[in-house]
Write a structure and sequence with these properties.
By secondary structure, this protein is an alpha/beta fold. It has three helices and eight strands; from the N terminus they run βαββαββαβββ. It folds into two domains: 66 residues, 2,3-Dihydroxybiphenyl 1,2-Dioxygenase, domain 1 (Roll), CATH 3.10.180.10; 59 residues. The chain has a four-stranded mixed β-sheet with strand order 1-4-3-2, with helices on one face. A four-stranded mixed β-sheet has the order 5-8-7-6, with helices on one face. The radius of gyration is 16 Å and the shape is globular.
């Protein structure tokens, strides 16, 4: 018996805005929506497909009332597929992301960024 990684869930204050940002970044679409929750993905999951084989996980954004109290223990690495890192960083900044200083030091091949809505969900463009 095995399990499947099916969703990455992010607690946030504004699921609609954060899902919209990640849809553009990842070229995903909204696949499910309910009060306080938005799920996005590159495919429409079905129980049969998930059970049959490992499929790309979806991401869901869930509204929570409390703010983040400590450093994030998870971040997403975004790798450009048809442009260089500089062009991808420029695109993400244009979408509203900001650079984040997490004492990563000079000479790194990635850029740490924060999402445009909460400014507290960090990700890297590699």
């Amino acid at each position: 018996m095995t399990g499947r990684f099916t969703e990455l869930t992010v607690d946030c204050h504004d699921p609609e805005r954060l899902a919209a940002f990640w849809c553009v970044v990842l070229d995903f679409r909204v696949i499910d929506r309910s009060e306080g929750k938005v799920e996005i993905g590159s495919w429409e999951p079905t129980v049969e497909e998930v059970r049959a084989r490992q499929m790309p996980p979806t991401s869901q954004f869930i509204r929570v009332p409390e703010g983040r109290a400590v450093k994030n223990r998870l971040h997403l690495d975004v790798s450009p597929i048809d442009v260089g890192t500089d062009e991808e960083v420029t695109r993400l900044l244009g979408l509203g992301a900001t650079r984040a200083d997490v004492r990563q030091g000079p000479g790194r091949s990635w850029v740490v960024m924060a999402d445009p809505n909460t400014r507290d969900y960090q990700f890297c463009a590699a």
